[in-house]
Amino acid sequence: MLFKLLLLIAYTSFIHAYSVIDYSFITKYEYGQMLYENPRGIGCSKCHGNNAQGSLIASYKTSKGEEKRIFAPKISDVSWERFKTVLSAKENKSSVMPTYFLTNDELISIHFYITNLKK
Ligand code: HEC
């Protein structure tokens, strides 16, 4: 009897431990937004803008007096395939965009957020 009781307690605390890391209290959209703004590194929004429409990151003049501009592209309609490739740490060949170490679930949430942005 006591053993069964202990088992029950162990079982319920196990369930409880798992429910603590359950993100269902925020929606997938909100979770994606949170990661987009704060993805363990410089926020995507800093370069791609709050609404993922892209933005001018820098403009400068070369020694020859040419005007140069660096843009972060619009990403609100990027395909999942493209998104996954660009964001995977191994594949990042960008000289501007930082390398991120995001899990597949985190990538799915960010992609869901940027492609479903509320206007
Ligand atoms: C420091 C600025 C910067 C930050 C921060 C940044 N990006 Fe970028 N991103 C760029 C630039 C610039 C490009 C264009 C490719 C290049 O020049 O390397 C790009 C390209 C992309 C592309 C490819 C778009 C296409 O159509 O090919 C995706 C997708 C993307 N970024 C998503 C993200 C996400 C998601 C984050 C956050 C986790 C992020 N970026 C953070 C600057 C940035």
Proportion of residues in helical segments:
40-55%
Side-by-side strand order of the widest sheet: 1-2
Care to count the β-strands? 2
Order of helices and strands: HHHEEHH
Distinct bound molecules? heme C
Low-confidence stretches: none
Overall outline: elongated
Radius of gyration, CA atoms, in whole angstroms:
21 Å
Largest sheet: 2 strands, antiparallel
Number of helices: 5
Distance between the termini: 59 Å
> Per DSSP, what share of the residues sits in E-state strands of 2 or more residues?
5-15%
**What structural class results from the helix and strand content?**
mainly alpha
Describe this structure in words.
It is a single chain. The protein has 119 residues and is mainly alpha-helical. It has a domain at 2-43 and 77-115. It is built from 5 helices and 2 strands; from the N terminus they run H-H-H-E-E-H-H. The chain has helices at residues 2-20, 28-37, 44-48, 80-87, 104-115; strands at residues 55-61, 67-72. Strands 1-2 form a two-stranded antiparallel ribbon. Strand 1 (55-61) and strand 2 (67-72) form a beta hairpin. Helix 2 (28-37) packs across helix 5 (104-115) and helix 4 packs across helix 5. The chain starts with a helix and ends with a helix. Bound molecules: heme C (HEC).
